[in-house]
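Moderator note: this is an archived Q&A kept for reference. The question asked for a predicted structure of one protein chain; the sequence and the answer are reproduced below.
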Amino acid sequence: MNEAYVSDTMGLVLRMEERRLSPVARRIFEEAEAGNAVIYVSAITLAEILYLSEKQRISVSWAEVEMYLNRFSGYREQPLGMKILSSTAEITDVPELHDRLIAGTARFLNLDLITNDPVIQASAFVNTLW
């Protein structure tokens, strides 16, 4: 069985922009691209990427993101729903709503979250990798 993870927004953006990733994060993205791991991408991550792309705060376009995620079988979209919101409600140490929802997704799926965000990394409610 393939390993599975959740990626936060910046992890996925850094991979797509071919910017600096930790060796661990790089390996996980490469494994997903090879079909040997699964990375769940939350609806919140997708919404943030759309926003950042529209505001030209990242260099990748929304169309490039769609093509990238559809090209590799190792990526899965994770919708936002009541169960994830309930899991998010338990997280009390990540104040920013979008980050908290992404952490809640990882918590609900019981998977490690790929993130370089120090606030999320310090959370007692989610396991992180970078």
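Archived answer notes: The chain is about 50% helix and 15% strand.
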